[in-house]
Predict the 3D structure of the following.
Amino acid sequence: MIYHCEDHTCNYWDEGEKLPERCPQCGRKLLRANEADMTGDDWTALGNTLWDAEASDKKRMVDCFRKAAYLGSAWGVCNLGICMEQGNGVEADPVQAFWLYQQAVEMGSLNAVCCLGVCYQYGIGTAPDAKQAAELYCKAAEYGSPRGQMLLARAFHDGIGVEADAAEAVYWVRAAAYQRYGEGMHRLGVCYEYGDGVEQNWERAVHWFREAAESGVGVAMTDLGYCYEKGCGVEQSWEQAFSWYRRGAECGDPVSMCNLGYCYEKGCGVEQNWQEAIKWYEQGAQCGDLQSMHNLACCYEGGEGVEQNEDRAFYWYRRSAEGGNGSAMCNLGRCYKRGYGVEQNWQEAVKWYEQGAQCGNLQSMHNLACCYEHGEGVEQDMKKAICWYERAAEQNHPAAMNSLGECYAMGRGVPRDLETAMEWYRRAAELGEAMADYNMGWHLEQAGKLSEAYTHYRKAADGNDDSAWWALGRFYENGVVVAQDGKEARRCYETGEKLGSVKCKMRLARCKLLGIGGRRAKKAGLDLCRQALELAKESSEKEDYGYEAEMNLLRRTIAENES
């Protein structure tokens, strides 16, 4: 049974065994149709209802369009061409699609004019001809087709068949937007956001994002949410950002799904909920969003919201990295470096760091530089190490700034230049790099500027740099700048040891042996000193400032107390 809405402006058509009570589009009464009285456009409307149907109904959809074409519907001919182009319900035949579009154009279909232009632009069923494509887009646009206006706008923006002209592109985008065309309203917002063909104006961008979002454009909901998140063109509001990300996600926009997951993960605009975060990251990942894949991998690696799973973390890092996500490339390289979720492989680690670096990921640049500096997975090459440190540092990557400072301080790959080193340390420290504060403190201490050194050590310790706790402990142990305080020294060493500092472990063992900051325990203290010394011999901290001197001090302390 075929039926349709009694309101012809609604144009809803469908078929089924029973006649529903109301139209699902407008809620009005449905009427049974007489097939013999159906026009070509009626058959096209029925075919459109079946467009998103299950595969078993696709043949029926094509049959509807064929009947429509037979009855002279330009709409039906055009839609039949789309099926032929896409292989939807029928075997793909681009040449036949091109011919059908030509026929539909002759019959007056504006949409077919656009489709024919796309065929000329991309060489679908015919030889590519950008100029002919632009002429067809212009024809459709001038007749008022919003799709044609958007295609013509893109042609002017990218110089497809016409000379590139950003202002002319915006003119046609605006024409589509003023017709309430969703894509046009959103694109006009993007133009105002980036100052593309118009003067940048965040308030106008927000206006058009809102217009498009309220008309149901999912990507506009995402962009409007971003404006609220960052406070661009509107007062910053995580609650509003969350609301628009949710609407965008529910409309199927993958970026909104990712951003909604982030809101749940961080508790931004909503109560923190790891399960909801995972749910939306998974949905975004399944929709192909690379950032969702990356975030989901992070959750599996950290066991946050899901049970920790190395294999799943590696799987999603790889999926995201292979799709081009720079952060995922970096983390995939780290997985290969550590043997996390995969067999350890330095060559693969370097490969992914290099790909991430080429994509502009700053952490990848830093990690790749470290590989070249230490000859891990590649032949040692300080020239390349410096190159990658500089590229990341010049883009304000704090760890790269610190590492570059280290190279200048030690004369590794560049002439030794402590002044330049201290400048890089300073810049890194200003961005919160605790290790850079520690390094500044060390060089100031060596220069006899003890008060300044203490200030930087304290700041580095507040940032949980383990070596800074060792430095502070020494100052308290020996009464340098601060009052001598064995208990405070011991507390500093204990804190640094918990953070993994071998130097603090050596000092703490010495404190127990000598009774610094607590009761002396000679036998137990000697055992701890010997254990700490053995551990120190194999530690990766050997190149740290003061490390060798610390080992020598512990050796002397052991020798002096063994008798």
User: Anything to note?
Assistant: The chain is about 65% helix and 0% strand. The mean pLDDT is 95.
